[in-house]
UniProtKB/TrEMBL annotation:
Protein name: N-acetylmuramic acid 6-phosphate etherase
Top EC category: lyase
Catalytic reaction equation(s): N-acetyl-D-muramate 6-phosphate + H2O = N-acetyl-D-glucosamine 6-phosphate + (R)-lactate
NCBIfam families hit by this protein: N-acetylmuramic acid 6-phosphate etherase, PRK05441.1, PRK12570.1
UniProt lineage: Bacteria, Bacillati, Actinomycetota, Actinomycetes, Kitasatosporales
Residues annotated as the enzyme's active site: E94 (proton donor), E125
Domain SIS, residue spans: 66-229
Gene: murQ
């Protein structure tokens, strides 16, 4: 069902949002030389990291709750519309090659479906019911986490996703770029990154989009670190699906072990290309099956598997 709110009420609501605010000082930006516009834009972008830094305690608390549930087999589900939805889909799609996660473990939902990633689907963001319909087939459980993403913090699709997830007992995170947002209020963990008015009035694919990308990077990356998907700062669960990643896999094993090329190739061959297993065979001096067993006993944590051999 599409919202039937009075357009005047919506205009008033948007007018009250920081992300929609007009900046008179930039009213003549179209008359400036290109380099000056680039400097202005770069200066605006430089403020985003500080806005994220101001919310690091809330972000860390959300990550700890998320990682705890994913360690029990739960899933991470992003839900948003427009730019926010696309950023969620992007983050979800990069988890399998980066961390060797099953595609079903991190899911990106966008209002309007997959076609909305590349084309606008009019009205999709205005429906709470559409969010429920998109989430129902997933069979959410208390071990799952749903992250509603919306720059304005008022998008019905994102709010509807969070409300439905809470009704199923799932953990909820609301990521917005305005203070006192309905989305953050609806979620157990509200994260509001207030980046201020955009260079182009209301174009939240700019600073707000950058802020959302930074936070989503943290949610997925730090969660995967907590789940043992890295060894130090090495991506030991990387999936070698092409020549570049196969070369990266070899380099990661080299950095972790200091072994020579021939030993690394033997280890990778003995473990079917699994980087984490190959490292363990070298550092613990075990064969491939033993490495697999040790990692299974350590819930996939390489450091713990190594410690069990000392």
């Amino acid at each position: 069902m599409t919202s039937t709110s009075d357009p005047r009420d919506l205009r008033a609501e948007l007018g009250s949002l920081t992300t929609e605010a007009f900046r008179p000082d930039l009213a003549g930006i179209d008359r400036l030389p290109t380099l000056d516009i680039a400097r202005l834009m770069n200066g605006e972008d430089a403020t985003v990291a500080g806005a994220v830094a101001a919310r690091l305690p809330q972000i860390a608390a959300a990550i700890d709750a998320l990682a705890e549930r994913m360690a029990r087999g739960g899933r991470l589900v992003y839900a948003g519309a427009g730019t926010a939805g696309r950023l969620g889909v992007l983050d979800a799609s990069e988890c399998p090659p980066t961390f060797n996660t099953d595609p079903s473990r991190v899911v990106g939902l966008i209002a309007g479906g997959p076609q909305a990633v590349v084309t606008s689907v009019e009205g999709a963001e205005d429906s709470r019911e559409l969010a429920r319909a998109d989430l129902e087939p997933l069979g959410l459980t208390p071990d799952d986490t749903v992250v509603g993403i919306s720059a304005s913090g008022r998008t019905p699709y994102a709010i509807g996703a969070v409300e439905y997830a809470r009704s199923r007992g799932s953990l909820t995170i609301g990521l917005a770029c305005n203070a006192d947002s309905p989305l953050a209020a609806a979620a157990e963990h509200g994260v509001e990154i207030v980046v201020g008015p955009e260079l182009l009035t209301g174009s939240t694919r700019l600073k707000a989009g950058t802020a959302q990308k930074l936070v989503l990077n943290m949610l997925s990356t730090i969660t995967m670190i907590r789940l043992g998907k890295t060894y130090g700062n090495l991506m030991v669960d990387v999936r070698a699906s092409n020549d570049k990643l196969r070369a990266r896999s070899h380099r990661i094993v080299a950095l972790a072990t200091g072994a020579g090329d021939e030993e690394i190739e033997r280890a990778l061959a003995a473990t079917d290309g699994e980087v984490k297993n190959a490292i363990l065979t070298i550092l613990a001096d075990v064969d491939g099956p033993t490495a697999a067993r040790l990692l299974a006993e350590s819930d996939g944590h390489l450091r713990a598997a190594l410690d069990s051999r000392t």
